[in-house]
Every structure is written in C-alpha cells, then in structure tokens.
Amino acid sequence: MADGTADGAGGRVPLRVIAREWGRIGVLGFGGPPAHILLLRRLCVERRGWIAANEFEDGIAATNLLPGPASTQLAIFTAWRLRGTAGALVGGAAFILPGLVLILLLAALFLAGNPPRWVLGAAAGAGAAVAAVAVQAATTLVPPSLSRSGPGPARVRWAAYLLLGAAAAILTGPWLVLVLLATGAAEIAFRRRGRPGPGPGSAPAGTSPTGDAAQGRPDADPPAPPAPPTPSDPPAPRPLLPLLAPGLAATGGLGALAWVALKVGALSYGGGFVIIPLMQHDAVERYHWMTDGQFLNAVALGQITPGPVVQTVSVVGYAAAGVLGGLLAAAVAFAPSFLFVLFGAAHFDRLRANTSVQDFLTGAGPAVIGAIAGSALPLALALGRPWQYAVLALAALWLLALRRGVVPCLLGAAGLGVLAAAAGFALP
C-alpha cells in the first residue's frame, strides 16, 4: 500500500480525521498495549479498511523490534501509512496528548505539598499493588518468549538471560540496559556459531515477535534479503547516546531529566514495565526528585491513565521541575519513537528479515522479562506500612490467581487506601 492511502472515496485521509480517530484511541486506551492494538486494528482494518490485515500484523511485528513503547510506535506507524510524515506527527500527538494531560493533572494532585488525607491514602493503596502488576506483566511475556527461543541449549540460555535480567533490575538500576544489550549480543554469537551458511536460494531465517514465521503464512511474500546500506539510509542514532550521556547527566536539573527520559524512550527494549528499574535509581536515589512512595504512585498513575505506560516518566518530570519538567520528559521520551518510524518505516521489511536483529531480540527478550519481574522486589521493599502489604497480597491474588484486569486492580487498591486513611491507619 502506497503512502497516502485512499479513504474509500478516492481521496487521501484528512489530517483532521487522523487527529480525531487517534485522539479517541488516546482517550479510551485504558489497559496498555493490548487495548491500544485492539483499538487501532478495529479502526484501521475492520471499520475503515485503510490497512490490510496482514500489513497491520507486519506493523505490529516491526514496531516490536524497536526499543521504546511499541504500541505508541504502532500508532505513529499506522498514521504514517495514511498520510506520511504529517500523518505520523498528527496521529502520534493525538494518541499521546490525552493521557499526558490527565497524568500531569493527577501528578499535581498526588504530589502536592499538602494533599488531603484521602488522596494520600489512594496513592499509598494504588502504589502498594504495583509490585504485583510488575509480576503479572512479566508472566504474560513468558510463553511467546520461550517459544521463540527454541529447545535444548537455547532453553538453558533463555533461563540464564532471565536470571541476569532479574539480577540487573534488583542490583544495577540504570545499568540494566547494558545487560539487555549484552544478552542480545551473546545470543547473536551463539546462533551465528551454530548456524550453517545459507545455501543457494535459501530465505533468511527469523520469525516475527508474535511467534509466527512470515514464510509460514500462505498470503505472505517471502522476506527480502537485507540490502547493503545506501546513502539514503538514516544514520543509527545509538552511537550518539554515549556522547550525550556525560554532559546531560552531570548538569543536574533539566539536563539530567532529559537524559533519564532519553534512556526511557531510546533504550527501553520491551517497553512497559522495563522502564521502572531504568528510572527508579535516578529519580529516587541519584537525583532525589521523588521518595520511594512517590515513585510507586507515579508507576500506578502510568497504569490507570489511558495511553502508553511510558507516560510514567512525565510524573517523574513533574516531580523534578513542575509542569515544564513533565512536558520536557514526555517530549524527550517520545521523540525516539517518532524518529524511529519517520526515518525507519521504509526499512521495516529489511529489519524484520535481518537474522541478527531476530537473534538479538531472542536473547534480550528473556532478560527484559527478568528485569520486569525483578523490579517487583525493590518496589515491594519500598512499601512503608503493614497494611500496604495486605493490599499487595490482595492485588497478587486478583492478578495472578484470578487473572483479572490491571486497571480495576489499581482502582480497587486505591479505594482500599482511602478506607485505610479514613480508618486512621498510618500513611507513608
């Protein structure tokens, strides 16, 4: 499908339609990436017919290869398919802004200098459930990751990567990303050593992150082999990050906040809860923008508001520098997602067909899962009152045993916190 898809009546999809529809998803998108993907598919594939079903699935697979919030990148990508750069900018902004406005308003309420007691109770209750949410998020990722790894020695390596990711989340804080990169590189080396050279006419190996081999679909074209770089290919942004890091981190204030947000947006393989250990050390221990309890509140707010979970970084920005800090953190965290799509969408087919990329994700994936699960321990240890552990136990029962939804869990935990405050229990 060429850029600038017809809207059924022979014309290009108007930007105002993209703004309205993507904004509606931004308002209604409670429940994280699964809800976002479902709403985008209903709009683009089922209701409007703008994008073919197999192309939409390929878009999911391609955006899952990128670091950062995958569902946000899918929203940007689908808008790009309809109206190019202008569509990507309008659709992405419309998808992000509703949740950003709401989470900043809630941050102002929850992080106020002297909030009402019921607000403190609601925050303490919702924050108490966050560790259980992290474990639930990790468990949902285990089956597809195990299936992707393969049997035998690959399964042993999968377990090792999982444990390394968990240990890194518990012990290393902001250096977690180095462990993710190392596990991905190790898997590339293992698989390259054990893989025979390609025979004449053989297709590149690799499967999509959803676990379906592209060549296994009867309606799919075989993936094209990776082409050599051309002058039109965009330069990889990652080598610039080590050059930016010392200056931004050392400045403190807005410079340090920008660096923390950049790590969240550009280096968080797996998105979602993997951002927690990336942010917690900097926000609480290094720069002292927040207390442990306030950070738990920030994570809870990122879960109960619509839009991407990465919005959590906006609460950290608000705690560091008010509304300006929240807006700056959001702009820096989401900028890589726009850049990855705008400069890389034309190369997504080659990216998915690249064996080394697939091998990297096979190794980094279990480390991400381990990091998400491992983040539950420091989150649980940050709880300050005995009644919060009771709320955590109930949340774990709701999410892990009964397998119910995250948003009702957090809202219910907040309600229990309000009751605890009304009963006179000590608050964090």
Automatic annotation (TrEMBL):
What ranges does the record list as Low complexity composition bias?
Answer: 202-217
- For this entry, the protein name equals Chromate transporter
Pfam families in alphabetical order: Chromate_transp
Give the family per the record.
Answer: Belongs to the chromate ion transporter (CHR) (TC 2.A.51) family.
Q: Where is the composition biased (Pro residues)?
A: 221-239
How is the protein disposed in the membrane?
Multi-pass membrane protein
Question: What keywords were assigned to this record?
Answer: Cell membrane, Membrane, Transmembrane, Transmembrane helix
Chief location of this protein?
membrane
Keyword Lipid metabolism among UniProt keywords: no
Show which residues constitute the signal peptide.
Answer: none
InterPro entries from the entry? Chr_Tranpt_l_chain, CHR_Transporter, Chromate_transpt
Taxonomy of origin reads: Bacteria, Bacillati, Actinomycetota, Actinomycetes, Kitasatosporales
> Taxonomically, which superkingdom?
Bacteria
List where the protein spans the membrane: 88-111, 118-138, 158-183, 315-348, 360-380, 409-427
Report residue spans for region: Disordered: 192-239
Q: Where in the cell is it found?
A: Cell membrane
